[in-house]
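Working notes for the structural subgroup meeting. M.R. asked for a predicted model of this chain before we commit to crystallization trials. I am recording the input and output together here so anyone reviewing the notebook later can reproduce the run.

Input as submitted:
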Amino acid sequence: MPHIAQRETVGWAFAVDRGGTFTDVVGTAPDGSLHTCKVLSRDPHRPADPALRGIDLLLERHGAACGRRVTSVRLGTTVATNALLERTGAPTLLVTSQGMRDALLIGYQDRPDIFARAIRRPSPLYRDVVEIPERVYAQGQVLLPLDETALRRALVAARAAGIEAVAVAFLHGFRHPAHEIRAAEIARAAGFAEVIASHAAAPLLGFVARGDTTVADAYLSPILLRYTQTFRASLRAAHGDATVAFMQSNGGLVDAEGFRGVNGILSGPAGGVVGMIAAGTAEGPRRLIGFDMGGTSTDVSLSTGDIPRRFAAEIDGVRLQTPMVDITTIAAGGGSVLRFADGRLQVGPASAGADPGPACYRRNGPATITDCNVVLGRIPADRFPHVFGPAGDQPIDPTASRARLAELAAAARDEAGLEYSVEALAEAFLQVACARMANAIRELALHHGEDPARFGLLSFGGAAGQHACAVAGLLGADEVLLHPLAGVLSAYGIGLTGRRAIRRRTVEAALDASGHAAGRQELQGLEADARDDLLRQGVADSLVEMRGSAHVRLAGSDTTLELPWQSADALRVGFVEAHRQLYGFADESASLVIGSVMAEAIERVAAAAPHLASAKGAVIAD
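Returned structure, recorded in token form:
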């Protein structure tokens, strides 16, 4: 764990994954020994930030022998994710070109359920939208100057209405940003602290996704900023000055100044993917399926050697154009609520969370997957600490699990005439949950043109070990990998990774000598910008590794494939091979287009220390 093994000064180094149910903490003491713990993310008896509670717990246990000085903390958090899903971000104003008021609301006119007569679409992130007279032609000619008077008038009204953040997205602004730059300047002068323009958030072709990304960044960043400021202040008050870095959705770290809302949506799960690859390839290259089952949900990922990524995603109706780890999330975690409805057994999507938690937590919670495992003896009550119940001092309660499942068995009998014993019902619910998880993995593998049976299944997260063999059997996979730190592998991965800066820009040029030269020129500017970002964060220039890539597509298509930057001929060959792998066919004579280029600056980190494989620590801790 480079974050832990390469110590700049003597002190504790912590890596933390704040999940929906549990917060995992991995800490390395000044003597190099590794310690772990889990705490509830929401504990009614301990209102302090769970990351700080976990850090304090390890220091309380081991500080007498190892010292209490904290030198660095790395954190993955669900703050941005929760704000997006719960629609609790900052009140945001969308400033756009005249005539484009409803463009983001209309989107691509997708209908997930084509037979639904009542369309229920997610609410937009912005509270209000204003159209400003302005227009720049696609080639850069100004057809209508920016109406600054109208913009100032609209901003004054927005401030009076309680708007806190402004997102600016004009037509063709990604290529010709002069109007966006001026509009952002006016918004900041009007008193808005959070102003984001689309040419900075997502300088890419595609007004809808670019606009959504910009709005999401403006909407989420103030919430994330408040959290990071509060966390750093609390950490400083308790432990003095320590280096703090945050996990991004792209699989790399960034300091608090560079941590943006749109880059924090998959902050915690990204650490799990990094940890999965490090754990699964310690003895050599291996094709891996990541099976991360926590308390609230299950994240699945697929790696053939490097961090799997996607560059466009839709999360709860919000279209995003930003690099993020390629993870599929399903609502089937240890705390997923069990129901008998519509004549069948159903698992999730609701979760009992940390409070009240599963029925066995003694807080009058519902029946969950965890309760099924308790009833079947897969979770031994005597192996868990006494941290449950109203006062947080009792063991888990198998009797409560049986009582809740007995209620569901009675419902199945009364509503559908189905006879289940409590144990048979628990097993049936687990089969439903495992089938859902296996289907999600199959779908992800198919998306990449792969057969899941050819991969090893690496299970991690607090609940994955109870279901790994069943899921692997359904997939036809004959290899299951378990790591000593499987229960806290996302936090472990956050400790393994280095800082990363990514820059992308649209090129839209034919894949020929001229287009390749244009892409190379754009890439050089992006590389300099990305490198400067890491240098700003204190990374030594000698530790910065640069990677360039091109996103190539067929002419007339809007689906690109990412390829390492290379010669034009090699890009063409690589595209044909990747297209054949993904879709089963390829036209070697087709016209190709360089859609965009991307530069990555990555902090090089050393391999994990050997002693990590025999890490010690509690499986679950108060």
